[in-house]
Amino acid sequence: MRRRESFARIKLSDGEKEKLNSEIKAFYLDVRGEEIGLIEQMQLLDLFEEKMAPVIYNRALDDAKRWFVQRMDNMDGDFYELYKTLQ
Q1: What's the pLDDT score for residue 38?
Q2: Distance (Å, rounded) from C-alpha 57 to C-alpha 38?
Q3: Is the pTM of this model over 0.85?
């Protein structure tokens, strides 16, 4: 059996990181009333990217699989509707 290649770690683009760092900064200011520095923003984002992204990615894969299985079940039913009845 052929072994599947593992996917590379999810990486964010510089633009995505910049936007998410702004979101982290705004969250801390709005919710906690605290200023957060750039280093702290980057550390939090790295933590989320390393620990949370794989969990979210796996959930998305599970959702996609459920959607695909449902579509295949529908197609299977549609296929048998094409059969001609014998008289």
Answers
A1: 93
A2: 26
A3: no
